[in-house]
Amino acid sequence: MRAIFSAILLTLALAAGSGAARAQTLDIDLGGGGSGGPSYGQSLVEPGPPGSVDPGFDPAAPAAPDSTTAQEYTPVVLTTVPAPMVVELFTSEGCSSCPPADGLLGELTQRQYVLPLTFHVDYWDYIGWKDRFADPLFTERQRAYVEVQGSSMVYTPQMIVAGAIDVVGSDRKAVQKALKTAYTRNTMYRVQVARGNDGRVVARFPEAPIGVPATIWLLTYQKKADSQVKAGENAGRHLVTYNVVRSLKKVGMWYGPSTEIELKLDPSKAGDPDACAIIANQAEHGPIIAAAAFNYASAW
């Protein structure tokens, strides 16, 4: 039954959808060749110049539930295109196989059409080094992906591309193939983020034929983190990880109609972040159908 449900999710996410962002090219090169470095298929959703307003953005909005005054909203400028391809790396400072994957994800951070995120898991902490960025919530997210995909094993370094494709995070060719597949088949929808004059921050999702309801996640992350590991498998190594997720919170559901979700964030639990991301997974941990990233200071 689980396998059937997973297949339904994958089919819905990979099917064509009206109003969706589509891949324009298959020019995906992770080899690093050429003076321009890696290049990726570009989404048809183009980023506007800094400070520009999304053509579909409506600054007016209904009054908040506890107010009789209509709110005016200012768009929060996104740091990616409005529909980036999400790559999630599950890694650990206690895993000797992880540094090459950490470096590869660092390369992906240079691409505006990809939203790479690093989740540090806690199940390697017992072998001698406690990963300061690890969180049981991140381990739960990885296990949930594995369960939806019909597997029974978690490992590091693991990359989940578009919430649907599982690859070894240090395998450059496998990552290249997964990105190419996701750009070709995955359907993504635009997300708008805005800040009200009362301080409320909201994410707006369009009307879309998504089929399976989507769970909306709010993440905070640190763009770069350095650690000097003193014990465990990486003892003596200086490790660098990128887009390190510091907090993860479920903030709402999107059922298909146009939806506005308030993004509430407790600064004490945000982990002193640089940036935030919104991710919409079908069901809870199925394929990703919408995403956006923006600077933390722009909203809070």
Question: What does this molecule look like?
Answer:
The chain has one domain. The protein contains five helices and 13 strands. The protein is 18% helix and 30% strand. By secondary structure, the protein is of the alpha+beta class.
Order of helices and strands: HEEEHEHEEHEEEEEEEH
Distance between the termini: 43 Å
Q: What's the mean pLDDT score? A: 82
- Estimate nothing, just give the exact number of structural domains: 1
Oligomer: single chain
Tell me what portion of residues adopts beta-strand conformation.
Answer: 25-35%
Helix content: 10-25%
What is the SS-derived class?
Answer: alpha+beta
Flag low-confidence runs.
Answer: 1-29, 31-53
The best one-word shape is globular
Rg from alpha-carbon coordinates: 19 Å
The number of E-state strands comes to 13
Main β-sheet, spatial strand arrangement:
1-2-7-8-11
How many strands, which pairing sense, and closed or not: the largest β-sheet? 5 strands, antiparallel
Number of helices: 5
Entry keywords:
single chain, 300 residues, alpha+beta, five-stranded antiparallel beta sheet, 18% helix, 30% strand, globular, disordered N terminus
